[in-house]
Amino acid sequence: MKPRQKRVMFILVGIAAVGLAVGLVLNALDKNVSLYFTPTQVFNDEAPHGRSFRIGGLVEEGSVQREADGLTVNFAITDTSKRIPVVYKGILPDLFKEGKGVVAQGTVGPDGIMHADEVLAKHDENYMPPEAKDALEKAAAANAAVESK
User: Fold this and answer.
1) Are the beta carbons of 121 and 100 closer than 8 angstroms?
2) In Å, how far are 58, 118, 148 from 86, measured between CA atoms?
3) Is the pTM of this model over 0.70?
4) Which pairs count as long-range contacts for 117-125, CB under 8 Å and 24+ apart, including other chains?
5) Same-domain check for residues 76 and 110
6) Domain assignment of residue 18, given as a range
7) Domain shared by 61 and 90, yes or no
8) Which uninterrupted H or E stretch holds 7?
9) Do 76 and 136 belong to one domain?
10) How far apart are CA 80 and CA 89, in angstroms?
11) Could you report the per-residue pLDDT of 58-94, keeping only the tens digit for each?
């Protein structure tokens, strides 16, 4: 093989290796990225099916029900416009309360119920993710518009 052919072969193998590495990184990121949705977006079927995602909002007042096993909790997350029922099996954070902010990660089943793998409670009274704040403000404005009619 001539030196020029060796150089071309080396460049082609290098490009293929870089392409493979980029493909593997993008695939790993695609599988591990957890998207954030509001209850209204989940209700409108904008959330991915069969993939884990995060839903954030407020724990609906009067919706928390604990089952006899002591670990399974049923509750609803709302953005004051729509509500999504959630089932979580595990120990809830100490700050988990009705009417407070929460983010749950899991998948929505065909029954429309979110089966959460993880539940995070808001840790500071002043903090709220910008997406959740925007969703709550939009839902409040929509509710005000409906009530004024």
Assistant:
1) yes
2) 12, 11, 31
3) no
4) 117/52, 119/86, 119/88, 119/90, 119/92, 119/93, 120/93, 121/92, 121/93, 121/94, 121/95, 121/96, 121/97, 122/95, 123/95
5) yes
6) 1-33
7) yes
8) helix 3-32
9) yes
10) 25
11) 898 999 999 988 889 999 999 888 899 999 999 988 8
Question: Which two tokens mark 142?
Answer: 């929509």
In the structure encoding, which two tokens stand for residue 32, read together? 């591990």
Cβ neighbours of residue 43 closer than 8 Å, sequence gap 6 or more: 82, 84
Which helix or strand (DSSP H or E) is residue 72 part of? strand 72-78
Q: What is the pLDDT of residues 110-148, one digit of tens each?
A: 888 999 999 988 665 555 667 667 777 777 777 777 676
Q: Is 27 helix (H, G, I), strand (E, B) or coil?
A: helix
**47 and 2 inside one domain:** no
If you search the block for the tokens 């990121």, which residue do you land on?
A: 29
Joined together, the tokens standing for residue 3 give 């030196």
Helix (H) or strand (E) holding 45: none
